[in-house]
Amino acid sequence: MNLVPLHRYDGICLCETHIAGSSHVPDFARLKDTLIFGVKLNLVRELENPHDGWAIRIDYPESGQKLGYVPRSINQVPARLMDAGKELYAQVVGLSQESDMEFVRIALIMKD
Question: Are residues 69 and 41 in contact, defined by beta-carbon separation less than 8 angstroms?
Fold first, then answer.
């Protein structure tokens, strides 16, 4: 991942978090290596998700490939905003290491 400092967003930063569920995405290691610091990722509400009624999927912009989800512990407010018609996206802000797992860090941004 090419890490370059990012000084501002094109909207309101709601929070920073990580991409959840990426360990279930086939070939995620290769996809992760193609992510560039600052790239905007698509957020897609999954209203019919059987595991989480507030689910927000994170997709790679060019291919639409699923990268994972906004963590369940923080997805209710962004999901409500999206359901109300607000436009949100994720932006890659870095990597974090936790024990033997590496996570892609993102900022959730609401366009203003």
Answer: no
